[in-house]
Amino acid sequence: MSEIDRRRLPRFSNDAAARLKTVAARAGRVAGEDADGAVKAARPARTDYLAVKAALQERLLDEIGERGLLENDGADVAAAVQDFAARAIASEDIALNDAERVRLAEELTDETIGMGPLAPLLADPAVSDILVNAPDQVYVERFGRLERTAVRFRDAEHIVRVIERIAARVGRRIDTASPMADLRLPDGSRVNATLPPVTIDGPTLSIRRFGRRRLRRDDLLNIGTFSPEILEFLVIAVRARKNILISGGTGAGKSTLLGVLAEAIPETERIVTIEDTAELSLDQEHVVRMETRPINIEGRGRISARDLLVNALRMRPDRIIVGEVRGAEALDMLQALNTGHDGGIGTIHANSTRDALSRLETMVLMAGIELPSRAVREQIVSAIHLLVHVRRYDDGVRRIESVAEITGLEGLTPQMQELFAFRRRGKQGRRVVGHFTGTGVIPRMVDELREEGIQVPAALFQRTEEADL
Ligand SMILES: Nc1ncnc2c1ncn2[C@@H]1O[C@H](COP(=O)(O)OP(=O)(O)O)[C@@H](O)[C@H]1O
Ligand SMILES: [Mg+2]
Q: How confident is the model at residue 47 (pLDDT cuts 50, 70, 90)?
């Protein structure tokens, strides 16, 4: 925590300070208890920095876990936490060098105190989103379900302080002049913060956790996000360098699905990713990650997705992945896809596969180049091969609702045919009941793929009626 932050923090009452000393002392004692094995037993094999950090953070929160303490978040708490971190690290038998130990102590302190009452939520790996609407309205999403927590901020000012600290850490400022900010926590979590008057009733925080472990192909299969047949087809399409656009609403699982499809990209390919806030974490080694930059306080320095895309084309990419297409970069992306840079995957905010196409068209027009509607649509239908629409159903499960192949333009209307769909039949308790099925349509790309020596089993596309998922 910086000096500035500390000066702004309220002082502690003597009572609280005394309680803290006890906690700090206990922390030191516990950390020193190695000899009798009490602590050792709980210790995992600590081979890397992040594992050490996660384990210590958990223990630290246990130690100072009384909520009253976290809510006070005064300078004395910082001291107690620092004390804990220093002692724990000094007494731990861990494979870190001195510089790493110092960094670890600083990060532990900063992340624990800096996040105020949110610290316990951030330490819970099951929490995927944290939403602060008001001092006494803090929600989390766990396993796809939103629930209200007992976590409280003292008042609106308390929320603002946490926001300012998050912003300060990444060298940004949030104030009445710029009351909205997209930020990132050191662990990669994405944060959106707003201040009044933009949010009428007070400051808000929306944190999208960067999962300790991202959902992978098998996780989504188990959850029931798609059928094995849909997965098999999409994996073939990715390997065959088809261009795929994933559509859906906010939180529908677009980015997650993008990550899962990207798992199918061969190791030998050079991947360039373009995102507003880097959240994709690909398995492949050969990845260059690019991130846009908003306008700074002096009104300069903006680097748009379009700038990045133009630059990416000069980086000899085998694949370009656009995390979310939202503006003028749509035009450059389509042009790239149409001029040999195929195998692209991206996401777009839309309500259906059809809506995705019309939004894409609107975005192309944002590039400010006068193109007749027909020319834009021609670009779109020749650049995009597959549309995959995901939806968050009311049981919290994200499912692929539809997979469609684009087949061309008839007159002015883009033509597409649905290949797979989720057929919802009803609900059983909270669970949505239904099944995935092919539509019986064999995609056009199957012929073309066969010519390239890639066999796609026709059975994948059969209609199925029975199996419930
Ligand atoms: N198939 C899924 N089942 C359950 N939860 C999911 C699934 N896909 C994503 N999630 C969770 O939903 C949240 C939003 O996912 P994300 O992919 O970021 O959505 P989007 O990019 O559409 O906004 C994340 O917390 C993620 O872990
Ligand atoms: Mg996303």
A: low
User: For the chain, how many structural domains are there in total?
Assistant: 3
Q: Quick one: 298 and 440 in the same domain?
A: yes
127 and 265 assigned to the same domain: no
Closest ligand to C-alpha of residue 390 is: 1
Q: How far is the CA of 420 from the centre of ligand 2 (A)?
A: 22
- Looking at residue 99, its pLDDT comes to 77
Q: Answer whether residue 143 shows pLDDT above 80.
A: no
Range of the domain at 187: 115-211
Is the overall model pTM greater than 0.90, yes or no? no
Residue nearest to atom 13 of ligand 1 (CA): 251
The reply to whether 271 falls in a domain is yes
255 lines ligand 1 (CB under 6 A): yes
Burial of 234 (0-12, 13-18, 19+ CB in 10 A): buried
Domain closes at, from 189, 211, 233 = 211
Of the residues 215, 221, 391, 395, which should be mutated to test ligand 1's pocket, given the most ligand atoms within 8 Å of the CB? 215
Is the CB of residue 398 below 6 angstroms from any atom belonging to ligand 1?
A: yes
Q: From CA 307, how far away is CA 326, in angstroms rounded?
A: 14
Q: Which two tokens stand for residue 362?
A: 């609107």
Write out pLDDT tens, residues 400-459: 999 999 999 999 999 999 999 999 999 998 899 999 999 999 999 999 999 999 999 999
Q: Exposed (0-12), middle (13-18) or buried (19+): which is 353, by Cβ within 10 Å?
A: buried
Q: Is the CB of 254 under 6 A from ligand 1?
A: yes
CB 334 within 8 A of CB 309: no
Q: What is the predicted pLDDT for the residue at 277?
A: 83
> What percentage of the chain carries pLDDT values higher than 90?
56
- Which residue, of 211, 237, 255, is where some domain finishes? 211
Residue 7's φ and ψ, nearest 5 degrees, are -65, -30
Paired tokens of 240: 């065959």
